[in-house]
């Protein structure tokens, strides 16, 4: 009896299991299809779209027509890869190329090719260098190194290009035209600021200041409301953008009603300089100020000495300028003394013609090569502003000597340079009239092209 019951129970359990299994299968089949996703995928909702059918044989037979945008992506994948880097402070071109992942041998070859076109010393920190790689054969990343290029100047680009066996140098020139530009305006604060606001390029403004500085004290002579006028050459691209400023052809100022006009003139021997309206060379035997941006902080005469604390004759002029500012020789001459000189600190004394001398004191250091007996030219750097010797701060103490006696530099009218005469003066006056006519034909803040022959007369 017990065995009969046991057998009956087993049959019931087996039937129940089969029914349960069938039900579970039915429930599973009734669920929507969910593709398998690996553990750890947290990229968002599951994509239940079945994968598209890919006919590999059909792809081998003929390429399919790409959908909109696919062709552009394919084109990008086959384009050269460019990388633009900037030269770091003190960095050599080979070091920059190595930084871009280029092997040292290739970097050296490319740099050597580049330097057949330019002087390596002209490369400056911050200059942009474009490195080009071939497209990757895999459709991503980059291929082998193929070219390095940079701007040699505003007009020329130079490159080292891989030929298959070596790097060759290549030079390309931008399409530019040589033109003459004219600007004029009113001075509100300083010539530098007002001319810059009017659109005059910085190199031209600096050339104006240098040329006018023989006759103009930029600290005291210029007043708000004075005007300026400038004519210069420039190279312009096809969009009318100035890519390089050329020679300053004319610089003019009207200071409280007094007109100063200076013109660039080239003589028959090819020598050029700037002359006043009546043909007098702008250069004087001595510069009015031997440092740029100078502000007089102490004049010539009796004063209460800031260190000694009592009245003492101040036999020069003090110019307040930042430390390290270059000091120029006020005129052509020879070095009479150079070195430490008591309370003057680092000191240089020059002898010029006509019995004049100049002295420069408190230098931070004397320029290399400046020593007793050395000839110097006007404008040559002879030292740098400092505060050596008996000084309360950085400045240039400047003295003008007649013989061995210090005199007030502001009260002496120093000899002028060459004055044109005869046929040379007639030639110059004809050139000056051409300049005036040219300026009157060019509205301010504009530039025009001029024939090559005429430009030759204007200067090179």
TrEMBL record:
Q: Could you give a single Gene Ontology term from the biological process aspect?
A: proteolysis
Q: Where are the transmembrane segments?
A: 12-34
Q: Where is the M23ase beta-sheet core domain?
A: 312-409
Q: Which cofactor does it need?
A: Zn(2+)
tRNA-binding in keyword set? no
Q: Which GO terms describe its molecular function?
A: metal ion binding; metalloendopeptidase activity
Question: What InterPro entries does this protein map onto?
Answer: Cell_wall_metabolism_enzyme, Dup_hybrid_motif, M23ase_b-sheet_dom
Pfam families listed in its UniProt record:
Peptidase_M23 (PF01551)
The record's Gene3D superfamilies line, in alphabetical order, gives:
3.10.450.350, Glucose Permease (Domain IIA)
Q: Which SUPFAM superfamilies match?
A: Duplicated hybrid motif
KW Metal-binding (keyword) present: yes
- Entry keyword set: Hydrolase, Membrane, Metal-binding, Metalloprotease, Protease, Transmembrane, Transmembrane helix, Zinc
PANTHER family the UniProt entry points to: CELL DIVISION PROTEIN YTFB, PEPTIDASE-RELATED
| Name of this chain's protein | Membrane protein
Q: Which organism is it from?
A: Magnetospirillum molischianum DSM 120
């Amino acid at each position: 009896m017990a065995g009969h019951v046991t057998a009956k129970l087993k049959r019931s359990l087996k039937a129940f299991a089969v029914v349960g299994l069938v039900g579970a299968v039915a429930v599973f089949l009734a669920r929507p299809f969910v593709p398998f996703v690996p553990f750890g995928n947290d990229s968002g909702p599951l994509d239940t779209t079945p994968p598209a059918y890919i006919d590999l044989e059909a792809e081998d037979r003929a390429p399919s027509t790409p959908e909109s945008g696919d062709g552009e992506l394919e084109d990008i994948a086959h384009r050269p890869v460019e990388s633009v880097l900037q030269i770091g402070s003190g960095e050599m071109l080979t070091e920059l190329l190595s930084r871009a992942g280029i092997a040292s041998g290739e970097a050296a070859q490319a740099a050597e090719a580049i330097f057949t076109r330019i002087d390596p010393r002209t490369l400056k920190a911050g200059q942009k260098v474009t490195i080009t790689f071939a497209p990757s054969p895999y459709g991503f990343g980059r291929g082998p190194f193929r070219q390095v290029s940079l701007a040699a100047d505003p007009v020329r680009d130079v490159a080292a290009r891989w030929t298959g066996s070596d790097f060759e140098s290549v030079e390309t020139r931008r399409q530019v035209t040589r033109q003459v530009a004219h600007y004029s305006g009113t001075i509100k604060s300083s010539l530098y600021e007002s001319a810059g606001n009017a659109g005059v390029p910085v190199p031209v403004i600096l050339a104006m200041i240098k040329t006018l500085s023989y006759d103009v004290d930029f600290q005291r002579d210029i007043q708000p409301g004075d005007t300026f006028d400038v004519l210069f050459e420039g190279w312009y691209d096809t969009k009318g953008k100035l890519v390089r400023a050329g020679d300053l052809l004319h610089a003019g100022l009207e200071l409280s009603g007094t007109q100063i006009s200076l013109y660039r003139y080239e003589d028959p021997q090819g020598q050029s300089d700037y002359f006043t309206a009546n043909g007098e060379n702008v250069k004087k035997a001595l510069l009015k100020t031997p440092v740029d941006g100078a502000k007089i902080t102490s004049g010539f005469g009796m004063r209460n000495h800031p260190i000694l604390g009592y009245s003492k004759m101040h036999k020069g002029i003090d110019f307040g300028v930042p430390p390290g500012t270059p000091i120029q020789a006020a005129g052509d001459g020879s070095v009479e003394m150079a070195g430490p000189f008591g309370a003057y600190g680092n000191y240089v004394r020059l002898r010029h013609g006509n019995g004049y001398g100049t002295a420069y004191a408190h230098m931070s250091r004397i320029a290399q090569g400046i020593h007793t007996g050395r000839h110097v030219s006007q404008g040559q750097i002879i030292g740098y502003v400092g505060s050596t010797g008996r000084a309360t701060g950085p400045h240039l103490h400047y003295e003008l000597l007649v013989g061995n006696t210090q005199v007030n530099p502001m009260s002496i009218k120093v000899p002028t340079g060459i004055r044109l005469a005869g046929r040379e003066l007639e030639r110059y006056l004809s050139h000056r009239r051409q300049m005036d006519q040219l300026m009157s034909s060019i509205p301010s803040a504009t530039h025009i092209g001029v024939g090559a022959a005429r430009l030759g007369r204007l200067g090179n």
